[in-house]
C-alpha cells in the first residue's frame, strides 16, 4: 500500500491568482483614491435622473407604440427615405434662389409634380391620423 | 374606489406613486381615483438638512416640485387637511373643500417643537428646518473654540442624527484647524449612548476615538440662554459656548386637535399599518405610534407594504403582506466614512466597520432619493 502526499498543484490557489488579487485590490484602491465626493454626487445625480427618464419612457404608451411601429421594415424604410429627404431638401434649399412670393410664386411651387406628390403624402398621413384620433377618443383610450 | 392620501412627504408620495403604478389599469378604466392633499407644492429631502448645517449642501439642492414627483394619474392639491371626519369617511381642508374617500392614508409627518422647552429657541442651534440649518452653519463658521454641547430631546425624527452630528462636528472643526480648541460633549436621555442598543455599543469606542465626552440620563429641562447653561430634569447643569440640540418632535397639530392620537402619533397596528379601530384608514411614516424609528427609510418600507396591500385588496379582496418593522439607516461616521444599521421588529442591527464605499453609497442616495419617492427604488 502506498500513501500519496498532497502536492502543490492540489491547492485551489497559485501564485498567479494571488498576484491577480493584489492587482485587483490595487485597482480598487486606485479608483477609490481617484474618486471624490463631487464625482460621486455628479454620477449619482445623473444616474438618478437617467433612471427616472428611462422609467417614464418605458411606461409611455405612445412611445412604446411608436417603437413597435418603427420596428416594421416598411417604417424603417420610410424613416430612411425621410432622413434622406431632409438632407437633400436642406442642400437644395441652401442653393435655390428665394421665391418671388405672392399668388404667382405659390402657383409655380404647387405646379411642380414633386411638390404635389409631397402634398398628397401629407394628405394621406393627415387623413389616416384623423381617423385614428377619432377611434382613440371613441374607445376612451 | 376613492383613495385619499393626506400628506406629500416621503411616505405619502411613495404610497401614492406606488399605488398609481400598481393600479394603472383600474385608474384608466375609471374604477380607482387617487387624490393627494399636501401642505406644500415643494418636496424637501429632509436628511439633507444635516448637510446644510455643515455647509456640505445648499438649501436649493433639497427641493423638487411635488407635482414633478407624482405620477400624472394622481390628482394633487396643495390644500392641507383642517379636519378629519373618520366616521363620515371624509376630510375638510383649509381651503374649505370636502374630500370623501373609500380608503384614507394618513401621512402627515412630524414637526419639531423647540418652543416647548424653555430657552431652547433662543439658546440652542438645531437643523430640522431650512432656516435653522442655515443659522446653525453660520454659528459653526463663526465659532472660535470652546465647549460645544450636544443634547437630545425625545421623541425625535431620525434617531441616528445625534450620533452623526458628533462625527460631523469633529470633521468640521478639524477641517477648520481648531479641533484642539473645541471640547465636544454628547448628552443622551437614557442610560446608554443610543436608544438602539447595538448603535450605543458601536458609538462608545467611536466617540472615544474622536475625543467626545459623554453623559447619559440627561433630559433637557430648560436652557438659560443668557448665562449659557443647560439644565436637565435629573438636576444637573452644563455650561456651554455653543449648544446644539435635537429638539423633541410631535405629530402634526391637526392629529392632536381631532383626537386621532396623543402627541400627534396615531395608534397603528404594527403589521397591517391600519389605524386602530378603522379598517379603511392606514397610517404611514412619522405619524404612526409604532416602536420603530421615525425615518425616511421606515416610511419607505411601510409605504411599500401599504400600497401593495391596498392594491391587492382592490384587485383580489385581500391584503398580501405585513410590515415587518424594517428600517435601514445610513450612519455618517466622519473622515468620509459611513456605515449602516438595518433592523426590524425581530432582529437588532449589526453594525459593520465604517468604510468609504458606504459613505459614497450614502451621498449617492442623497440623489437617488428622488427615484425612491417616485416609487422606482
Question: Any overview of this molecule?
Answer:
The complex is a heterodimer of chains A (about 140) and B (about 375). By secondary structure, chain A is mostly helical. Among the domains of chain A are: about 35-95, no CATH class; about 105-140. Chain A is about 80% helix and about 0% strand. Chain A contains six helices and no strands. Chain A is elongated and about 90 Å long. Helix content of chain B is about 30%, strand content about 25%. The two termini of chain B are about 25 Å apart. Chain B folds into two domains: about 1-110 and about 250-325, FAD/NAD(P)-binding domain, CATH 3.50.50; about 115-245, FAD/NAD(P)-binding domain (3-Layer(bba) Sandwich). In chain B, the strands form seven sheets. Chain B has a five-stranded parallel β-sheet with strand order 5-2-1-9-19, with helices on one face. Chain B has eleven helices and 21 strands. In chain B, helix 1 packs parallel to helix 10 (about 295-315). Chain B has helices spanning about 10-20, 25-30, 50-55, 65-70, 120-125, 130-140, 160-175, 195-210, 255, 295-315, 355-375, and strands at about 1-5, 35-40, 40-45, 65, 75-80, 80-85, 90-95, 100, 105, 110, 145-150, 180-190, 210-215, 220-225, 230, 235-240, 240-245, 250, 280-285, 325-330, 340-345. Chain B is α/β, with parallel strands linked by helices. The interface of A and B includes residues 35, 37 and 40 of A.
Short description:
The complex is a heterodimer of chains A (141) and B (377). Chain A has 141 residues and is mainly α. Chain A contains six helices and no strands.
CATH topology of the largest domain in chain B: FAD/NAD(P)-binding domain
Number of strands of chain B: 21
Unreliable sequence segments of chain A = none
What percentage of the residues of chain B does DSSP assign to strands (E)? Answer: 25-35%
CATH class category of the largest domain in chain B: Alpha Beta
Strand count, sense and barrel status of the largest sheet of chain B are: 5 strands, parallel
Main beta-sheet strand count, sense and barrel state of chain A: none
Q: Name the helicity range of chain A.
A: over 70%
Amino acid at each position: 500500500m502506498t500513501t500519496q502526499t498532497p502536492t502543490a498543484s492540489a491547492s485551489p490557489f497559485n501564485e498567479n491568482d494571488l498576484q491577480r488579487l493584489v492587482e485587483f485590490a490595487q485597482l480598487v484602491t486606485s479608483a477609490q483614491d481617484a474618486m471624490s465626493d463631487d464625482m460621486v454626487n455628479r454620477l449619482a445625480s445623473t444616474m438618478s435622473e437617467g433612471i427616472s427618464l428611462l422609467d417614464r419612457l418605458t411606461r409611455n404608451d405612445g412611445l412604446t407604440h411608436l417603437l413597435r411601429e418603427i420596428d416594421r421594415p416598411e417604417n424603417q424604410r420610410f424613416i430612411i427615405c425621410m432622413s434622406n429627404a431632409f438632407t437633400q431638401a436642406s442642400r437644395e434649399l441652401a442653393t435655390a434662389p428665394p421665391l418671388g412670393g405672392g399668388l404667382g410664386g405659390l402657383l409655380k411651387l404647387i405646379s411642380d409634380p414633386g411638390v404635389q406628390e409631397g402634398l398628397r403624402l401629407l394628405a394621406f398621413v393627415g387623413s389616416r391620423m384623423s381617423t385614428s384620433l377619432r377611434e382613440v377618443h371613441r374607445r376612451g383610450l | 374606489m376613492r383613495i385619499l392620501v393626506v400628506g406629500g412627504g416621503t411616505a405619502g408620495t411613495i404610497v401614492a406613486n406606488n399605488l398609481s403604478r400598481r393600479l394603472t389599469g383600474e385608474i384608466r378604466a375609471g374604477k380607482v381615483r387617487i387624490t393627494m392633499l399636501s401642505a406644500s407644492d415643494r418636496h424637501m429631502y429632509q436628511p439633507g438638512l444635516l448637510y446644510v448645517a455643515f455647509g456640505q449642501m445648499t438649501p436649493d439642492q433639497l427641493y423638487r416640485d411635488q407635482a414633478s414627483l407624482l405620477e400624472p394619474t394622481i390628482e394633487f392639491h396643495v390644500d392641507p387637511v383642517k379636519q378629519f371626519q373618520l366616521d363620515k369617511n371624509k376630510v375638510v381642508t383649509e381651503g374649505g373643500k370636502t374630500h370623501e374617500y373609500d380608503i384614507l392614508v394618513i401621512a402627515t409627518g412630524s414637526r419639531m417643537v423647540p418652543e416647548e422647552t424653555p430657552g431652547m429657541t433662543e439658546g440652542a442651534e438645531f437643523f430640522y428646518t431650512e432656516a435653522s440649518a442655515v443659522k446653525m452653519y453660520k454659528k459653526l463658521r463663526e465659532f472660535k473654540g470652546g465647549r460645544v454641547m450636544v443634547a437630545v430631546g425625545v421623541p425625535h425624527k431620525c434617531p441616528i442624527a445625534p450620533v452623526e452630528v458628533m462625527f460631523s462636528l469633529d470633521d468640521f472643526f478639524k477641517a477648520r484647524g481648531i479641533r484642539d480648541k473645541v471640547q465636544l460633549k454628547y448628552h443622551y436621555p437614557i442610560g446608554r449612548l443610543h436608544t438602539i442598543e447595538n448603535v450605543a455599543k458601536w458609538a462608545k469606542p467611536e466617540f472615544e476615538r474622536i475625543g467626545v465626552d459623554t453623559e447619559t440620563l440627561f433630559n433637557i429641562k430648560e436652557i438659560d440662554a443668557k448665562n449659557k447653561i443647560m439644565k436637565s430634569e435629573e438636576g444637573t447643569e452644563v455650561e456651554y459656548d455653543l449648544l446644539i440640540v435635537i429638539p423633541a418632535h410631535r405629530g402634526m397639530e391637526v392629529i392632536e386637535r381631532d383626537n386621532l392620537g396623543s402627541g400627534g402619533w396615531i395608534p397603528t397596528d404594527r403589521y397591517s399599518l391600519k389605524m386602530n379601530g378603522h379598517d379603511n384608514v392606514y397610517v404611514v411614516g412619522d405619524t404612526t405610534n409604532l416602536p420603530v424609528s421615525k425615518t425616511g427609510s421606515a416610511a419607505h418600507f411601510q409605504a411599500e407594504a401599504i400600497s401593495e396591500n391596498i392594491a391587492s385588496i382592490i384587485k383580489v379582496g385581500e391584503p398580501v403582506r405585513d410590515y415587518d418593522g424594517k428600517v435601514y439607516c445610513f450612519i455618517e461616521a466622519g473622515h468620509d466614512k459611513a456605515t449602516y444599521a438595518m433592523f426590524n421588529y425581530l432582529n437588532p442591527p449589526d453594525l459593520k466597520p465604517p468604510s468609504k464605499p458606504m459613505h459614497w453609497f450614502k451621498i449617492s442616495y442623497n440623489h437617488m432619493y428622488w427615484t425612491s419617492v417616485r416609487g422606482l427604488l
